[in-house]
Fold Cytidylate kinase.
Amino acid sequence: MIVAVDGPAASGKGTLARRIASALDFAYLDTGLLYRGVGVAVLDRGDSLDDAEAAIRAAQAFDPALMNDPRLRSEEASSAASKVAAIPGVRAAMLEFQRRFGHTPPGGKKGAVLDGRDIGTVIFPEADVKLFITASVEVRAERRHKELLGRGTPSIYARVLREMQERDQRDRSRSVAPMTIASDAVVIDTSAIDVEAAFQKAMAPVLEKI
Ligand code: C5P
């Protein structure tokens, strides 16, 4: 069984996807880490994020162990990720890894939950359940701002908001696998509800399929 969880940054999709996976004892993959890993690898090699060939080489040589690197959580990695994620060759290199993860989940699990931007539209158009988690950009920027401050990282709300708007725009307007809502996705807006309420809403369509 495959549960696809898509949506913009700081919508709460990661928290929900992790909770769904844990409730069902399914494997969980945060696919944003793949693109963050490629972005960081490009920067580590001293290459430019605008160099598509360099990004494709980094994607083809991608080492999944990099997904545990704490640097992937930085704002620099987020921004680098959304740049390399717009390169078709980078997405092609990441496709197989994601499909394999869903079809043969690690640890012999009976299913997988993947979160990202194009899981229900491109990676698994046949997913058993598709969720699209969203929230207003102001609420998402506020969450990210508080999270950064909580981690001891200096942050200015107006700047976080601007960067989030830019990243949304890049993710929605790219020509390959843009972030769109699958026609058969259940949309959950988390702007005004807490994690518990969002989790209940997210589990309803999942429980119908079990
Ligand atoms: O979800 P996260 O914020 O970690 O993703 C970082 C960036 O990676 C996104 O802004 C997006 O550009 C890209 N991404 C993507 N497709 C996915 C997951 C992430 O294009 N499935």
